[in-house]
UniProtKB/TrEMBL annotation:
Membrane spanning residue stretches: 250-271
Annotated spans, Disordered: 1-43
Tagged with keyword Transmembrane helix: yes
Alphabetic keyword roster: Membrane, Transmembrane, Transmembrane helix
Positions with biased composition (Basic and acidic residues): 22-34
Protein's name according to its UniProt entry: Uncharacterized protein
Species, as recorded: Paenibacillus solanacearum
Length: 461
């Protein structure tokens, strides 16, 4: 903001005072406002003169008590007008908030058992918005999707395992009900999978991704739905009842073979495609480094890691399909061993989802560490220590205006997605188009697609 152009000489003077005061702030960060005396007045003079001194003192006190001094330091680096804008955003007001209103809006608790704390996530977002940085949350539901995938796989294994136990030992109605409940939940999960395949389809997807989305996820999801529904209908509380439910078992077996064939074919094709894309993106990253294009290099690196994860998922999908084919064939043959293979298929599905979720969490941490140059701010011996690395990361995140790894990662992906959109969709940069092609997207300049939101999802997986 150019204060001179607005005729605001007082604001200019306050900025100069703020810059001079900032030199004295570091030593005072470890003191409470009551202990700081005249020095604290010096620190807050700029905001105090505009009526925000009490709010700033409260933030200093809370930041010291709650270990957020580095994050408050990011606030200190804003201009006076940006600080005021941030305070208004935090309070949800258009005018100057009172201390009572501000503290009420900025106080929260994780649950009823904990004391109230400052909503530092909200503080971080408000500060970055005031500085005109991107805070678009383009990766919000990924963890939820993985959790649902894992739950579905787990319920498949539970249902199949209990079905086998029932037939083997003639267990009672409680175990029988548990097995049928597991199958019912899995049927719901399969229906959701099929719907998501339809809902997430886009004209911006490459031909391969479109076929994989509708074919593998949609068709196989419907086959799973048929199988789980039949499985839930099959009593299976004893060997005699299992034989009596032969019709339902036959339907489950046939559906398992059909769905398994689709999963196997899709998994093998996916493995090959993701392996090819990962290698292409690795080469693109090298070219970007040579040309000193940090945005392209970072995007190619993250995209390549995503393709590597998808390659692992495809391998698991193929293995799941093979197990389903064998299990379905054994079910049609009338042997109880078929349920074991169905259980194995479910276990593979759940294990793959959990692996991808955990691996993605680790990857987010690594992406953030590179972004804030964590290694460059630590000596080699300390970097190997997990606790020291975590402490240093938290400090650097605060200095960059973030309260968590998730916030930082979200901004990284948002910046990349919007940057790629400008280069490849609005512009006509061939290297950025190559990037999009290798995360499974095609450019349609007339429609202005793919949009940044879809780019972000395909980039981060």
């Amino acid at each position: 903001m150019d204060y001179a152009n607005h005729g605001n000489r007082r604001a200019q003077q306050l900025v100069k005072e703020q810059m001079a005061a900032s030199k004295e702030r570091a030593p005072e960060r470890n003191k409470d406002p009551e202990e700081s005396g005249a020095s604290e007045t010096q620190l807050t003079r700029s905001l105090r003169n505009l009526g925000y001194g009490e709010i700033y003192q409260w933030l200093v006190y809370k930041a010291n008590r709650q270990g957020k001094a580095p994050l408050l330091g990011f606030f200190d680096g804003l201009t006076v007008l940006q600080q005021i804008e941030a305070i208004k955003k935090m309070a949800g007001t258009t005018g100057k908030p009172s201390l009572d209103v501000f503290t009420d809006k900025m106080s929260t608790r994780n649950n009823m058992l904990f004391k109230k704390t400052v909503d530092w996530d909200k503080f971080s977002v408000a500060c970055r918005e005031a500085k005109k940085l991107r805070t678009d949350d383009v990766t919000a539901d990924t963890a939820g999707d993985y959790a649902g995938y894992a739950a579905t796989g787990g319920s498949v294994a539970l249902s199949a395992g209990d079905k086998l136990a029932n037939m083997a030992v003639g267990a009672g109605d409680v175990t029988k009900g548990l097995a049928q409940t597991g199958a019912g939940l899995s049927a719901l999960g399969a229906a959701v999978q099929a719907y998501q395949a339809y809902d997430q389809h886009s004209s911006s997807l490459s031909a391969f991704d479109a076929v994989h989305n509708i074919g593998t996820e949609g068709v196989a999801g419907m086959a799973d739905l048929t199988r789980y529904t039949a499985q839930a209908a099959s009593p299976g509380s004893a060997v005699g009842e299992a034989v009596a439910s032969g019709a339902a078992t036959a339907v489950a077996g046939a559906a398992a073979i059909i769905g398994g064939a689709v999963y196997l074919a899709g998994g093998v094709a996916g493995y090959r495609m993701h392996d090819k894309r990962e290698k292409n993106l690795s080469l693109l990253q090298t070219e970007a480094d040579v040309k000193d294009d940090p945005m392209l290099s970072r995007a190619a690196s993250i995209g390549g890691e995503t393709q590597a994860l998808n390659r692992t998922k495809s391998a698991a999908t193929a293995a799941k399909g093979a197990a389903m084919i064998v299990g379905g064939a054994l079910l049609l043959a009338g042997g109880p061993v078929g349920w074991i293979m169905i259980g194995v298929a479910g276990a593979i599905s759940g294990a793959a989802a959990i692996y991808k979720f955990l691996k993605n969490r680790q990857r987010r941490e690594e992406v953030v560490d590179r972004y804030i140059d964590l290694k460059g701010h630590m000596i080699a011996s300390d970097f190997k220590d997990k606790d020291k690395r975590s402490a240093s990361r938290e400090k650097l995140l605060g200095e960059h205006g973030f309260n968590s790894i998730s916030q930082c990662y979200t901004q990284i992906i948002a910046e990349l997605a919007f940057g790629i959109y400008e280069k490849a969709v609005k512009g006509d940069d061939p290297e950025y188009r190559t990037l999009l092609e290798n995360i499974g997207l095609v450019v349609n300049r007339k429609k202005g697609e793919p949009k940044p939101e879809l780019i972000a999802k395909k980039l981060s997986g």
